[in-house]
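job 3f2a | input accepted
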Amino acid sequence: MNWKSVVTLLILTSLFLSGCMYPSERLAENQVPYTDQIAAVQQAVDSFKEDNGGILPIKTRDAVTPIYQKYPIEFKKIAPKYIAEPPGNAFESGGIFQYVLVDVETKPAVKLLDLRMADTIRDINIRIKSNGYPPYKEKLADNVYTIDFDKLGYKQEPYAISPYSNQNLPFVVTTNAEVYVDYRQDLFQVLKKKDEKVIPGEDIRNILVEDSMFVPAYSLPYTVDPETNEPVFLKQ
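job 3f2a | predicted structure (236 res):
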């Protein structure tokens, strides 16, 4: 092999190795929530709102969209004027988070929605459709059940990783065959720590959002049992 062939081989090897390393570095970056990135997006949203008479840079969603998925940020409206580009961990940049707004009527705040949960829910839904109906297991509340995953062909029960506690959260299904993440474990822990009055009958999911970067994605409403003060599904 002559020296030109050796040089060419070394260059190609270098390019190949760098190409292999870059995605893994990007993958790690795209899965980490950074407070400074949220702060940068918040500043961009605030500036856009101020310059546009109170209008928010959000995508249009219909009225029945679940509240924590209802106000995704439209980065095309704020980049590059208010922010150079979407953060690396944003869905628009190949990341696993969708940037959303909460409290849009009062003080819009930027939060993160973990999209990995959607992938698992999508797989469960595909299996339910193939099965013909949801294999209900244990009744948890009116219209809410655990899922018999054995009947859906799972060798191990799927779960969602909580953005609040890193616990494994189970999935539940409604009588409308809609699959959700069950956040009762997280709510129970927060209620134990928080010294505040919670009114039975009111949706308490906001206590997860208040001191966190995340929203409880793909969740049903919860309240507290008036006798035990423990989180329960809010009657629909």
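job 3f2a | The two ends are 75 Å apart (CA to CA).
job 3f2a | closed
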